[in-house]
Fold each of these.
Amino acid sequence: MGMVSKNLKSLLVTGFSLFLLGFYSPVFAGDSTQNKTEKAPFEPGKVLMEHILDAHEFHFLTVGDKDIVLPLPIIIYSPQKGLDVFMSSGFEHGAVVDGYKLEEGKIIAEDASVKLYDLSITRNVAQMFLGLIVLVWLLISVANKYTKNGSMKAPSGFQNAVEPVITFIRDEVGKSNLGKKYEKYMPYLLTVFFFILINNLFGLIPGSANVTGNIAFTVVLGVISFFVIIFNTNGHFWKHIFNPPAPGFVKPILVVVEFLGIFTKPIALIIRLFANMVAGHMIITCLIFLIFIFGTLSVGAGYGFSPVSLAFAIFIYLIEILVAFIQAFIFTNLTAVFISQAFEGGHDHDEDHGHGHDEIVSPL
């Protein structure tokens, strides 16, 4: 098993390195054709933003002057023109399709008076749906094995891999934070954990989209957690918010602080996941960019720095695999903590923990 793991890791590192070299090879090719055609200057900031932001296609690599991409469906509805559906490849080389064009990743109408609604399947949306399909397939297949074999037969396959993770989330997140009420929230907590984890791991595949590094994605997760928290509050929670146990002259200030705390909790979830997943991708990309920054000085310097840059990029890439698990756990754990604070003061909860819930310190 250890040998298989080592071989798999070696294959992953080799494939990732070859992808990076292939993806950016046109920059070095510019020297050989400099006398024939003048190449546009390398703009690290622009390329970095194109890598992080959403797009209407999956870009895998560039070979010579040809980009290897997977176009995605463009779906546009306009009250004046009706529904238009075509592939994003129609926008190649700045082409105009049915009166629409693509400028800086945004679809606009040539006629400014035409109002449009962009319902296109972008790479973030496509990959999120793929992650959802994998999540449903994985959990249903594991559930079917339990239904078929029961608990008397040793787990195997995906069941063997998923069961320890489920047990860990149940014990370390559910029971430790929610006490006897943990079973009520386990479906949501497990769904959030595996959905974030799957999208985190998919985002590490070269050429894929960094879905969890998209602020819209994390906002939706944060808003869902916010409503789960609010719907589980009780009278004691709201009394603590609007009538905190404090001297009269301090109470008005504490009311404002406590009320704002209701909203800062989901915001903390949103920003934490978004920032951490974007940061890793930016570091890896910037390390690769160092090759071309040195290459602008001289081709020898660019090639000479390549091994150093790739070594650091691969190191950060492997760390990002660990971060993918950690961030999924942190989001799930903090959600459980905030839910437990929502019904603080409950009799069952105090018995489970052996102390008042006020002793829990918020990570904010």
Note: The chain is about 65% helix and 10% strand.
Amino acid sequence: MLSRMLKCEGQLAGSRRVSMLMKQMGISALYRKPNTSKRHPVYPYLLRNLSITRSNHVLAADITYIPMRRGFAYLFAVIDWASRRVLSWRLSNTLTTDFCMEAVQEAINRHGKPTTFNTDQGCQFTSLDFTGLLKENGIQISMDGKGFWRDNVFVERLWRSVKYEEVYL
């Protein structure tokens, strides 16, 4: 905005130069910034070197987005690591925690309580509501390392199949 104002006054200054000068003078834009400093606890990854030999031992979940004409739809799925079977899923137009918790509760009701539940470090999965649901049911919480997609490779493979076979036709 400042670079455009200066241009109207006959001064030539690009947006990068204006940004640099603002930093040097300690000037910043007045707008509300996101408060990302309040983080919920992140749990360790418990599946390394774990032998998974039976169904309902470890469940994993993740969210992916599906592009729509206007905005996105968000698909959440719970899968069994041993059988690679989708146990429950939900589709939503918002990234809230409630539709994720509904799918997890459905998987528990239909297939019983697993020993361990693995997710990534998304805000839905680190929320007190989501972790509270797992703790109430006596389920160990496992979370992927930051940026380690391979820790939840079976769900990521599911997303690849869904998107390339059903979405990106």
Note: Residues 1-33 form one domain.
Amino acid sequence: MQMGFGLYQQQTLKLVMTPELRQAITILQYSTVDLLDFLRQQVTENPILDLSEKNREFLVTDVTMQKETNKQADIDWKDYIRANATGDDTYYQRGSAPAQDYDPFNFISAGGTTLEEHLLEQVAMLKNVTPLEKRILNFLIGNLNESGYLTISEKEAADILNTNVEKIEEMIWLLQTLEPVGVGARSLAECLLLQLRDEPEEHTLAIAIVEHHLEDLAEKRYQKIAASLGVTPQEVQQAADYLRTMNPRPGAEFAQGTPRYIVPDVYVEKVENEYIVMVNEGSMPNLTINRFYQQMLQKNEADPAQRYIQDKLNSALWLIRSIEQRRMTLYKVTQAIVEEQKSFFEKGTAGLKPMTLRDIAEKVGLHESTISRATSNKYVQTPRGLFELKYFFTTGLNRADGGEASSVLTIKEKIKAMVDAEDKKKPLSDQKITDLLLKEGIEISRRTVAKYREELNIDSSSKRKRF
């Protein structure tokens, strides 16, 4: 066979990811808050687009009308442009949730006092403290972490401040006398001891446990601690219960965290005996086409800017279509989830059925990847609370009696209920829980029960035992 260079024609089929298609996929993944940020960015880049902060009316109020309206997935863009030209410049989202005057950001409380400010105020009120000692205290306060623990050693502090270690230790002791109790500790044990010694009553056993058996306490080796200290396991358990009332992070109450608000992307309301799905567009501004550029496009004379305006208009209309497609996809997917999980809305977690992305994809006629994008980072407000859409997708286990499979979340709820109702002096072992579930028709292995128990942060039966 002779090899060489040449020009050949060949036909191939391949999927080309256009910028418009990539934008539509990206918009589908956005949550309501992310979409709002994206739209504001697009307005700065495309002069054709305008965002108007107007309250919109809830156009669809009748249940039957809403069902018919949501079946319409296409928009007549020519009618849309004509409507804008006549002065109706508002782009309404059909089937969306009503606009509300409630703004969660109006309820953000002002930043409170920080741990550093709280301690510096106390230092300023101390008497018989030299300027050098105040300087050391201020330095130590600046080296506390959010939990209130000292993050610098005595030697490091002494080297930086050009003083002796004894002086640093003296100031650490003074720092530990300030509020909140336990601040300035260098370890968990020291933090607990500071709080125990500040109590009006002496807790000798609790102090001994913290000083010598803190690791055994964490592992709940009560019998080992009791044998070492010459007390009963019941006394050790009572001391452990008391130690749980201590605060291992005394500075946490002063932590300045940014509040994170979750805005539902979809609402599910129960009207009579039917569940109605509404996409949340109440917090979204109105997306409009700028009238000035519309009038320029209607001019007959040749204008060098016509081509630029036409390109920007096409981009704007594609953006509007992508937003509408996102709304319709989100509506269809949520509607299918509600239909599949109707028992959940009636009974709660106990009624949650196993469901996969493929089940919903087949129901709405979309690809699994589209369902995954539509439910990613999306939340739905239901009569039973706020849930992530991914929450409703769960695997299941077949029943031994051949009945309908039980979801993993349902099984976890059963395990938790069994543990809550058990005799604490004789807690249920994993094998016993396995046997009880089998009596209910749920065939599950002991290893799987142990896995679910650990995911629920439930200790083993030996650690749950009360003496």
Note: The beta strands are 49-52, 266-271, 274-279, 286-289, 379-382, 385-388, 396-397, 406-407.
